[in-house]
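--- STAGE predict ---
source: upstream dedup step, 1 unique chain passed
mode: sequence only
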Amino acid sequence: MATATAATSSTSSNQQQLQTYDDDDEFQDACDAETASASCALDLETALAEAKIAVDLFFNNKFNEAEALMKPLATSSMYHSVGHSVFTYLEAMLTFEQQHIAAASEALKQCLNVCNRYRKKNTLTETIGKTFKKVNYDQYTDLEAHAELCSAEALLLKAMLTFIEDETLTSLIKGGMKIRNCFAMYKECNNILNHRQWESESSKLHFESGVRMGLGTFNLMISLLPARIIKLLEFIGFSGNKQSGMQDLITGSQSEGIRQVLCVMTLLGYNLIVCYVLSHKEGDLRFCDELLVKQLKQYPDGVWFLFFKGRLEFMKGNLDDALKWYKKSWKSQNVWPQFHHLCFWELLWVNCLRLDWRESSLFATYLVENSKWSRTIYTYQKASIMCMLKTEELHSSEVRTIATLMKEVPKYKQRIAGKSLPMEKFACKKTERFFAQQSFLYVPALELMYVWNLFKILGKHFHLADGVYRIVEENLTHYGERVNSKSNPAFSVYAADNKALLLLLKGACLRQMNSPLQATRCLEDVIAMYKDIKEDHYLVPYAIVELALIYIDQGNKDQAILALEDAKKNYSGYSLESRLHFRIHTALIELKGKSYENIPAGGE
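--- STAGE serialize ---
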């Protein structure tokens, strides 16, 4: 109650101050002067204080209260404007509805205008001079420094929104240019941080947390990209260094700056999601545990940290605990029901690993009916999960439902920035196979679990891997019967594809069950079938990488590098190629003991 009263009082005071400034034609000039007026400094401190209150409200699930605090001054205060923009942006990302995307775009445009109002105005002479001599960053006021940082943040969100606002190649180029400008602004903010005398230590603290968060995230994410992409990005001004990025984010997470919690979120997202999707490595689960203990103490009912706690238990292979935390996150708030979809996605896969196809299908249905992120993927996933049920377990209506779902998969295929989504293309190809094989697919949900890189969780507990292994073995047993069946000649056409899939999944299971010799035999059989495979050419490079991971487990570094280079250079044009290249890249970095880029972003 005291906090709310303070916030209201602060907002009222701030409104009066800003009204005075709006009536004063000299306000902007005063703020542009080398020595900012006391009123400008007070305004920045007040804005930062209210933004901190809004952050705490937001992570305590009080989304409406947080937005109500930010929105009234969104047209005049840059921190209020950034806060309001973030809320509208998140709503757009969660709903994917056009009106929310348009609202977010307008809010970010307004935010950039507000930030530009407070940014340092350089004369033509000063702009030219920056090219030839060192910049005197002491000419920036604290307010102008924060305006640069807020501009970079708003520009990054605007760039990300550009990719979904327009589905053309032009939007991809525009978004890329915005991100490049944003990266340059963060580097400039880093120079401001390190090369000026700050008027307020509190102001510097909040500014530093933003610089750490921005540069740390850029460095970390760029370092994950395959070498050929990094070389292209270097050419247009990007650089990435994992160690530098991690250190920035850790430093930011340990500060008391306003963006501390965002540094924590980035570290959790990287260690619990990115690592598991884009690499063969695991995240630092112990570190995540430590972060979550602190954050859940501060935000005990916070939907975000309850979700990450569920993800942590999921990655540990503690499926029952994961279910508990995901459900707790799901039920912790109803203001943004779209956030439930994240929990439903996770609950779907937790139940798949538990081989509870009925329960998994329930969450798949929720996603199909309510989420707009990717109806193609959701629809195929639901159909695939239902296909895992035995014929005798399916009602006749459910058999018809599977066929209907498979027919609907291609209808919802979308393009982002002019490009089709690889996983949607994969799903559409699989539906074609389903009908070509007279309404049949081999273990489609297990295949999805594999391409989503969830098999590594099987290795946490033997019984998890053993359950999946038994299903694959059962299908291999019946494989010969189906191939020899004259009633369905399509099985003969795709015989190699189907057998290769089953052998790849079997080999991957055996690797997780610590049976490398048996796994190797299965994977080598897949590779030997390359010329016989009709469509699923992705199986061979994936099998080669799986084989390389066995070599890594055995300490056979040279053989692992050869296998990874083979998969990288000698195979192309297959489904989910980029996804595999990310994993190859991270494995090669680890084996070669160096990154493709060792220059940290943010340096002069």
